[in-house]
Design goal:
- The chain has a 6-stranded antiparallel sheet with strand order 1-2-3-4-6-5.
- The chain is globular.
- It folds into 3 domains: 87 residues, Phosphorylase Kinase, domain 1, CATH 3.30.200; 189 residues, Transferase(Phosphotransferase), domain 1 (Orthogonal Bundle); 128 residues, Jelly Rolls (Sandwich), CATH 2.60.120.10.
- By secondary structure, the chain is an alpha+beta fold.
- The protein is built from 12 helices and 18 strands.
């Protein structure tokens, strides 16, 4: 078979119990795609045909949905009696399974970044009414062929629950080693079942082993319900107590003690960098800290997660020493800034007009104005400052939704400044 529908098949890149995955070329969009094709007759299997059909229909229903940088996109689907295939984004880097053994572990900082991006992707899915229900290393992909570089993408929503919370069959859907106690007990499921499963993935990425070792599914289920795993630090040195606490809370058997939501989980992960429990290389800022910082600023309150990730792709982060002139009065400029950390002073003719701190935006008038715009004041750092810089060119090339939210927030900032100026004038 050289073609399926309009797609030109290039080679087989994967094979499972029910389907093959082919690398293909879409001549209309001129891009490579991955096509999952069901084996002929698999959906008519007298024993498990209904289950397989449910999984394919689940994935087919996601065409055009879940548009998120850390979720594999579903482009097209055909599901009928004669042929079933799903057309998806091609992600070349392979799965997290490659780094789940003791001899191939990733640095702890990289693990935290991966898990953080998964939490934000799965939170996005929850807001679309979707619980994944089969989170495991095989369903999380590296965007790059180098596991140390690039993003990750959550895949395979065939087992997902859409709409109201539901029950599941233990042996029907999911992988027992990653199932929550609620899932193995066939209880009603919500996002906390995926939170538990991602906790298991985090444990495995940190230590190179699953939290529970068993000879069969029934022994595994017993341990999930009754046993406690070994502390990650007993299996790998250098894991800080804060990370052990995060894993323990994500995997807590009692849902009341487990993370109640994905933002709680992701915030604790980002805090390990912010509070210096984990460190990046000099002059680098972890993506989790970047995202969590912008998400906390009032300026970005109306931005979706997708738009914040977009902004992070074109923003430049830097650390600036005290006494540095970031902006000089009268100079030309085509960029604006956010204060991620620290303080700066605003001066005009040597007189301090204002002090800027975390969350403040400045320099936007040069971007909003015409090409001949000049800076209207000096802005100098008072302390060590973590600065976010965005160029006007990058903003103009951003998506319509992202750019619209920037301009809306600029108007809010300018309105607040005008109000503050009026108050100061009245006070005189």
């Amino acid at each position: 078979m050289d073609k399926i529908g309009k797609y030109e098949l290039l080679c087989e890149i994967g094979r499972g119990a029910t389907s093959t995955v082919h690398l293909a070329h879409d001549p209309f969009t001129q891009r490579r795609v991955a096509i999952k094709m069901a084996f002929p007759g698999v959906l008519k299997d007298p024993v498990r045909g209904r289950l397989y059909s449910h999984q394919f229909l689940n994935e087919a229903a996601l065409v055009g949905k879940l548009q998120h940088p850390h979720i594999v996109q579903t482009y097209d689907a055909v599901v009928d009696d004669n042929i079933c295939y799903i057309v998806m984004e091609y992600v070349p880097g392979g799965t997290l399974e490659a780094v789940c053994t003791p001899d191939r572990l990733l640095p702890i900082e990289r693990v935290v970044e991966i898990i953080f991006k998964c939490t934000r992707a799965l939170d996005f899915a929850v807001h679309a009414g979707i619980i994944h229900r089969d989170i495991k290393p095989a369903n999380i992909l590296f965007a790059s062929t180098d596991p140390m570089l690039g993003d990750i993408k959550v895949s395979d929503f065939g087992a997902a629950i859409t709409g109201a919370p539901d029950r599941t069959l233990v042996l029907g859907i999911g992988s027992p080693a990653y199932m929550s106690p609620q899932q193995v007990k066939e209880q009603t499921l919500d996002q906390q079942t995926d939170i538990y499963s991602l906790g298991v993935v985090m444990y495995q990425l940190l230590t190179g082993r699953l939290p529970f070792q068993a000879r069969n599914s029934y022994d595994m289920i017993y341990q999930i319900i009754n046993a406690e795993p070994a502390r990650p630090s007993s299996l790998r040195s250098g894991i800080p107590p804060a990370l052990e606490a995060i894993v323990a809370r994500a995997m807590h058997k009692d849902v009341e003690a487990r993370y109640a939501s994905w933002p709680e989980f992701s915030h604790d992960l980002a805090r390990t960098f912010r509070e210096r429990q984990l460190t990046m290389a000099r002059d680098q800022v972890a993506d989790s800290e970047k995202f969590d910082t912008l998400r906390s600023f009032p300026f970005f309150a109306a931005f979706s997660d997708v738009e914040i990730w977009e902004a992070l792709r074109f923003a430049r982060w830097s650390k600036v020493a005290p006494g540095t002139a970031v902006i000089q009065d009268g100079e030309a400029g085509d960029c604006f800034f956010f204060v991620a950390e620290g303080e700066l002073k605003v001066l005009k003719n040597g007189v301090i007009l204002d002090v800027l701190s975390s969350g403040d935006c400045f320099g936007e008038m040069a971007v909003l104005g015409n090409a001949a715009s000049r800076r209207g004041a000096d802005i100098v750092t008072l302390t060590n400052v973590k600065l976010v810089t965005i160029t006007g060119e990058a903003l103009r090339k951003s998506s319509d939704a992202c750019r619209m939210h920037f301009y809306q927030s600029f108007l809010t900032v300018l309105s607040q400044r005008l109000t503050s100026a009026n108050i100061r004038l009245v006070s005189f």
